[in-house]
Amino acid sequence: MDTINENDFHYVRAGIRKGHLLPSQHGLLMPIEQHRGDEKNRAILMLHGFSATPAVYRVVMPGLTTYDALFCPRLAGHGTNLNDFARVKAQDWLTALERTCEQLIHDYAEVDVMGLSMGGLLACYLEQKFPLHHLYLLAPALYLKPKLERLMSYIPWAKYLGITSVQNRGGNLCTNHHSELTYRRTPLASVMELHQLMHRFQLLPIKCSTDLFLGRHDRVIDNKRVNEAFKQQPQARIHWLEHSAHVLPLDNDLREIITCVNGQ
């Protein structure tokens, strides 16, 4: 079993640390699997973001009332310790999710996928490979803000100087009510895995109905470029959340997301 080091995690909002993870809160790092009865009609697979945990959906999940089952796996390298995170490969995320998605499609009549940030990017990969019923993309990490993209070019120099990780400022939220549970530091090797995953991805015509949610105050992804890309997709509906930033399942407009999902 993977070893959890609670000292590697913190609660953060707008880049400011708001608390640390207690030993009694290890359950927040665990994968989530909820079954609501014996029916096998509808299931949703929910994918968290880079350096985050399944806990990012802790507020949204109780409001999703139309599913027979909800699944939120813990992506490889996440939710345990910084050494695991530093060793993870992007292919680990894809391989595990493909197995999970294949099993869900076998077990359920309809499978929806929701993904936040990197989870949104991974959801797009799954949509190209599997016959999904619906896609919910929350600030998908298809393009980073130009400033963040430029910072990527400095990573090889940082590694040359012996810098292996940087402080994770995270928690890009507008709300004052919730904080994001993430790793306190981000290994540069893991950042490069994410960056390469983004650059390998090519957005093809989407086959299933899709709802895209973008936070007006997002400081992580280039939401204007993402918006332009999906405007060309007939299957996609775009929702601008006026009172939210990047971590949409914890931000001020989360009720709009829940209402949309329940209305499908």
In the CATH hierarchy, the architecture is 3-Layer(aba) Sandwich
SSE-based structural type: alpha/beta
What's the CATH H-level superfamily name? Alpha/Beta hydrolase fold, catalytic domain
Give the proportion of residues in helices. 25-40%
**Strand share of the residues?**
15-25%
- End-to-end distance: 38 Å
| Strand order of the biggest β-sheet | 3-5-4-6-7-11-12
Rg on CA atoms, Å: 17 Å
Number of strands: 12
Description:
The chain is globular, with a radius of gyration of 17 Å. It is α/β, with parallel strands linked by helices. Helix 2 crosses helix 3 (118-129). It has a seven-stranded mixed beta sheet, with helices on both faces. Strands 2-1-9 form a three-stranded antiparallel beta sheet, with no helix packed on it. Strands 8-10 form a two-stranded antiparallel ribbon. The model has no long low-confidence stretch (mean pLDDT 94). It has one domain (6-262): 3-Layer(aba) Sandwich (Rossmann fold), CATH 3.40.50.1820. It contains eight helices and twelve strands. It has helices at residues 82-87, 90-107, 118-129, 146-152, 155-160, 188-200, 223-231, 254-262; strands at 9-13, 16-20, 32-35, 42-47, 69-72, 110-116, 134-138, 165-167, 180-183, 185-187, 209-215, 236-241.
Comma- or semicolon-separated keywords:
12 strands, 30% helix, alpha/beta, 22% strand, 8 helices, Rossmann fold, 264 residues
